[in-house]
């Protein structure tokens, strides 16, 4: 597939590294030679210095013959214009990253599609949805619903008190063929494991469970998370755009205080916020005296959502020390994600990864409905509708010869979630939720053709 990326900033660089692994024909455009050179020299892609709004530059990039044009420069106006030009020149699909949440409204996306902008990505809104989903359930690291909640994936930090942490019971004994859950991925230290029957769950693993809605309470019990409180009070560090999207989605049952050092930003927020369960506090949310005055020790959750990864990590560590059970951090510097995890920060989100997941699904030739990256683990999860004569329907799962890096987590059949075992036969019309190590999703896709 021929892909052109406009913008060699953080998002463009992340996408380029992800896509090159799949052996696509990648061209990346940026006006800054320095940014282009910062992309690893061992990546097999074409670098083109120039203005991506120049028709001449786009022609040199062969946009007219591209399958996908992705505009992720820092300027949303440039991104929208680039996509319009690319579509007129013949690009099959276009994607633009924007900063204005209004552009994600249905009326606006319909307008932009007519103008040639096929899809719009607003990372802050995507991150806000993830944050709220995690705050609603303080005992999990990640919660993802598939097929309108027919199947649910839970990412949980497993401590020594969990009943599934044993030295003598491998996974095949913990979750046999009749168990109400599957363990589909494990993050252990810096390694990601797609587990099989003889593997064990260990203290401090992040285990990813697949289950159906009626069994989430059982998973909470076996992972020793029953004492985690429901989030009713929340503190947020930073009046960022991500914060704006988060509070717009928060249920009114969560009383929220937002700490922001900038008086101007506080005033902007107060004009936008029209609710009595959210309060802006003009002050430094890393000031321990201020936090103690605001009773941080009685707070259920703390979210650090500034644009500074280091500040977010340190703030969450401080909140943990003050007794806050649930913490959330935006960590944009991918080099810091493992460090943040080792420091015991609860939910770690990376907007680049979230945006890349949404863009990446456009590349799959199978009719994939979604692809989601597990932020702290080098793994992806994808939904695949099963077509007639697809390879995955020819044999029971145990006889499909799936690579060790791939795991079938669940099936939705006739509107009902099913947890398959080795003898399960996948049928046309099913929707399959499958897991694989990062960069193996193309291997997975082959089974659904």
TrEMBL record:
Gene3D superfamilies: NAD(P)-binding Rossmann-like Domain, Regulator of K+ conductance, C-terminal domain. InterPro entries: K_uptake_TrkA, NAD(P)-bd_dom_sf, RCK_C, RCK_C_sf, RCK_N, Trk_Ktr_HKT_K-transport. SUPFAM superfamilies: NAD(P)-binding Rossmann-fold domains (SSF51735), TrkA C-terminal domain-like (SSF116726). Residues 1-121 form the RCK N-terminal domain. It comes from the Bacteria. Keywords: Ion transport, NAD, Potassium, Potassium transport, Transport. GO terms for molecular function: potassium ion transmembrane transporter activity. Residues 141-225, 369-449 form the RCK C-terminal domain. The keyword Ion transport applies. The keyword Protein biosynthesis does not apply. GO terms for cellular component: plasma membrane. Pfam families: TrkA_C, TrkA_N. NCBIfam families: PRK09496.2-6, PRK09496.3-2. This is Trk system potassium uptake protein TrkA. It comes from Pseudoprevotella muciniphila.
């Amino acid at each position: 597939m021929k892909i052109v990326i406009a913008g060699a900033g953080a998002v463009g660089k992340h996408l380029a590294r992800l896509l090159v692994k799949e052996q696509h024909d990648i061209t990346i455009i940026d006006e800054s030679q320095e940014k282009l050179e910062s992309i690893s020299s061992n990546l097999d892609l074409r670098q083109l210095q120039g203005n991506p709004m120049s028709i001449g530059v786009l022609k040199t990039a062969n946009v007219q013959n591209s399958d996908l044009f992705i505009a992720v420069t820092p300027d949303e106006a440039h991104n929208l214009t680039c996509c319009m030009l690319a579509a007129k020149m013949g690009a099959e699909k276009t994607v633009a990253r924007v900063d204005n949440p209004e552009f994600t409204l249905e009326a606006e996306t319909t307008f932009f599609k007519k103008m040639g902008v096929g899809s719009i990505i607003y990372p802050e809104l995507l991150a806000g949805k993830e944050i709220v989903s995690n705050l609603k359930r303080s005992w999990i690291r990640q919660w993802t619903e598939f097929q309108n909640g027919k199947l649910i994936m839970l990412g949980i930090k497993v401590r020594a008190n969990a009943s599934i942490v044993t030295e003598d019971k491998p996974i095949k004994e913990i979750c046999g063929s009749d168990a109400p859950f599957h363990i589909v991925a494990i993050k252990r230290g810096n390694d990601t494991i797609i587990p099989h029957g003889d593997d064990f769950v260990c203290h401090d693993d992040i285990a990813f469970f697949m289950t159906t809605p009626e069994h989430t309470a059982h998973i909470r019990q076996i992972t020793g998370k029953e004492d985690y409180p429901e989030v009713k009070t929340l503190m947020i560090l930073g009046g960022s755009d991500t914060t704006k999207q988060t509070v717009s989605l928060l249920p009114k049952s969560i009383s929220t205080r937002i700490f922001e050092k900038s008086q101007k930003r506080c005033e902007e927020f107060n004009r936008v916020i029209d609710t009595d369960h959210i309060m802006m506090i003009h002050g430094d949310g890393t000031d321990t005296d201020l936090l103690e005055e605001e009773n941080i020790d009685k707070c259920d959750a703390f979210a650090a959502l500034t644009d500074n990864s280091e500040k977010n990590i340190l703030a969450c560590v401080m909140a943990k020390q003050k007794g806050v059970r649930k913490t959330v951090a935006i960590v944009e510097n991918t080099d810091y994600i493992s460090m943040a995890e080792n420091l015991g920060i609860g939910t770690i989100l990376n907007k680049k990864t979230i945006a890349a997941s949404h863009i990446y699904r456009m590349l799959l030739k199978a009719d994939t409905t979604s692809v989601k990256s597990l932020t702290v683990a080098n793994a992806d999860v994808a939904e695949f509708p099963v077509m007639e004569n697809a390879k995955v329907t020819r044999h029971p799962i145990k006889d499909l010869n799936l690579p060790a890096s791939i795991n079938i987590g669940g099936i939705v059949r006739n509107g009902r979630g099913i947890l398959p075992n080795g003898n399960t036969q996948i049928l046309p019309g099913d929707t399959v939720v499958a897991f694989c190590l990062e960069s193996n999703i193309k291997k997975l896709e082959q089974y659904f053709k």
